[in-house]
Design a protein that fits this description.
The chain is of the alpha+beta class. The protein is 37% helix and 31% strand. It has four helices and five strands; from the N terminus they run E-H-H-H-E-E-E-E-H. It is elongated.
């Protein structure tokens, strides 16, 4: 197995055990994947979904990791990977008629976002 000798310019951040359905988080992540950091922040600010709050936190953390650890410019970063995986469900019970109990599953999810600086060599290959 051969590995690339170029240094990695990918910064990641993970938000774990975030309250919310994984499908509701994925519909927001699908909108921001592949966009620049600024475009994604503007989109997240004006989306009417509750899951945009935790996603914004994870995105800001990934950009802070890129800026601090890799020395990258935040204005040039692009969201290369954004995914949401299912976390454990919190189980709660509601009382029902005649002594019965009704199970409620409060879903959680894990959000992962990776940002990278676009390479000039890749963009020049696409334009040719």
């Amino acid at each position: 197995m051969t590995m690339s000798a170029s240094p990695t310019t990918v910064a990641q951040a993970h938000g774990r055990f975030i309250r919310g359905s994984v499908s509701k988080v994925r519909r927001v992540l699908d909108q921001i994947r592949g966009r620049t950091y600024r475009e994604a922040l503007i989109m997240l600010e004006f989306m009417p979904y509750r899951s945009t709050g935790p996603i914004t936190k994870v995105l800001r953390s990934a950009v802070a990791n890129a800026e601090h650890n890799l020395g990258l410019d935040p204005a040039a970063l692009v969201i290369s990977k954004a995914s949401a995986d299912m976390g454990p469900s919190m189980k709660r019970y509601r009382p029902r008629a005649q002594g019965r109990a009704f199970a409620i599953k409060k879903q959680t999810c894990h959000i992962s976002i990776a940002v990278t600086a676009p390479n000039d060599s890749k963009t020049s290959e696409l334009t040719n």
